[in-house]
Specification:
Layout (H helix, E strand, L loop, with lengths): L10 E2 H7 L6 H9 L3 E3 L9 E2 L4 E6 L2 E7 L9 H4 L3 E3 L1 H20 L9 H13 L4
Length: 136
């Protein structure tokens, strides 16, 4: 997965993000870079910006933020086990993501599960509830 050849000194950031499996397609990775979801050393890069080993990236994917250091370069997508070797995520980033996922899991448990139209039984219950409350 990693290219050990001496001529491979840098890779486009959108290709690397796709190869490291942060995004499912290269076009989604390109859109994320253009949309400001990726920061290279604290600044917004362009999709064609070349990265090299040792670069610091901040990747926002949904509600989660990954603070990573580039360990290896690749412009080919491979298995997830190989992609994980391309970067190192900081411990504070892992802890923050874990805390956020726990908070989201707790909020989802208390939120009502409303999907689509109510069933016939639910509509009858709603009608019964609203009719009983009328003082006409």
């Amino acid at each position: 997965m990693t290219d050990d050849s001496p001529q491979k000194q840098s890779v486009r950031i959108d290709k690397w993000l796709w190869a490291a499996r942060f995004f499912k397609t290269r076009s989604i990775a390109t859109d994320a870079v253009e949309g400001g979801k990726i920061k290279l050393h604290g600044e917004r890069p362009k999709p064609a910006k070349a990265i090299k080993t040792g670069d610091q990236l901040e990747v926002r994917s949904g509600p989660f933020t990954f603070e990573i250091t580039v360990l290896a370069l690749s412009d080919r997508r491979g298995p997830a086990s190989e992609a994980a070797k391309l970067y190192f995520e900081s411990e504070t980033s892992k802890a923050a993501r874990h805390l956020l996922s726990e908070q989201m899991r707790g909020n989802a448990a208390s939120a009502p599960l409303l999907r689509g139209r109510p069933t016939k039984k639910a509509r009858r219950d709603i009608a019964r509830f609203t009719e009983d409350g009328d003082d006409n």
